[in-house]
Write a structure and sequence with these properties.
single chain; alpha/beta; Rossmann fold; 10 helices; 50% helix; globular
Length: 291
């Protein structure tokens, strides 16, 4: 039975792994900064000083909203290649466990942590963040930046986050949310042109997100629309994708670029088109685990 469940999980997560494996070079060349391995969007306010700092600024703002304290144990759920986990350990003096279902990301995250000298306080593992192997009440904080979107079982993510958090522990999420459900067919098509290109099955509404959190046993829920602070980052990606898209189409037709790689650049273009049409926004959610 365990083998069957593992096979089912691997099959379910295979498109996500393929996406990040095949698009790694694009992320590496166009988005990541050598000192910060974040694959999320940036946060722009009066303190932000350029694209690399905007990625760090997102970490700073979420960390402050959660109220992370030195010495706490943090689960980075959907850690990517370790950008936030390494930042948390170095900047806030916490112990971090980063998990991702993408094997290649675990290998890269471990290498980056070693380069940054934090391997003693940051560990990475290949796990599904909706079904982890951690004991109950293992963490003080669960952190997730733009990772819950990849799960088709978002309610299960909240239940699992509550299970591994100690009573009074804090949850902090940055995520894409739709304004309502459903949209007219043309709008749904545009939204899913973006989402499918980034291996995202769908995104939740704010009411759904808050309902999942409260239903899982979280309280003190605070959901903030941060779209105005992330829009410069979204626009930056859109401009790069728009310039590259005609060439990408030709390369895809010549089978030089894969369908997954083409979907990535299509998504980079259509995320902003969908934003301008008012179909989604980026939000920050913090909550406290009940007793």
């Amino acid at each position: 039975m365990e083998t069957r469940n593992n096979n089912t999980m691997q099959a379910r997560l295979r498109p996500l792994s393929a996406y990040y494996d095949e698009t790694w070079l694009e992320y590496r060349l166009l988005w990541l900064d050598p000192t910060n391995y974040a694959v999320h969007f940036g946060y722009w306010d009066t303190q932000t000083q350029g694209h690399p700092h905007s990625l760090i600024r997102m970490n700073e703002v979420l960390g402050a909203a959660i109220g992370i304290q030195p010495g706490q144990r943090v689960l980075d759920a959907g850690c990517g290649v370790g950008g936030s986990a390494i930042w948390l350990a170095k900047t806030l003096q916490v112990e971090v466990v980063g998990i991702t279902p993408v094997h290649s990301q675990v290998e890269r995250a471990r290498r980056f942590a070693a380069q940054q000298g934090v391997s003693d306080v940051v560990v990475f593992a290949e796990q599904d963040y909706t079904r982890t192997t951690f004991p109950n009440s293992s963490f003080d904080v669960v952190w997730a930046i733009e990772s819950v979107c990849h799960s088709a079982q978002k309610e299960q993510f909240f239940r699992e986050a509550r299970r591994v958090l100690r009573p009074g522990g804090r949850l902090g999420i940055v995520e894409y949310l739709r304004h309502r459900r459903p949209y007219p067919p043309a709008d749904e098509d545009l939204l899913h042109s973006w989402l499918s290109g980034w291996a995202i099955p769908d995104i939740a509404t704010s009411d759904e997100f808050l309902g999942f959190a409260s239903g899982a046993g979280f309280h003190q829920l605070e959901l903030t629309d941060i779209a105005s602070c992330t829009e410069p980052s979204l626009r930056r990606l859109y401009r790069m994708a728009s310039v590259a898209y005609p060439i990408a189409v030709v390369l895809h037709r010549l089978r030089i670029r894969s369908g997954t790689q083409h979907g990535n650049i299509r998504g980079a273009r259509d995320q902003f088109r969908a934003l301008r049409r008012g179909l989604w926004f980026e939000a920050m959610l913090t909550a406290t685990a009940g007793a």
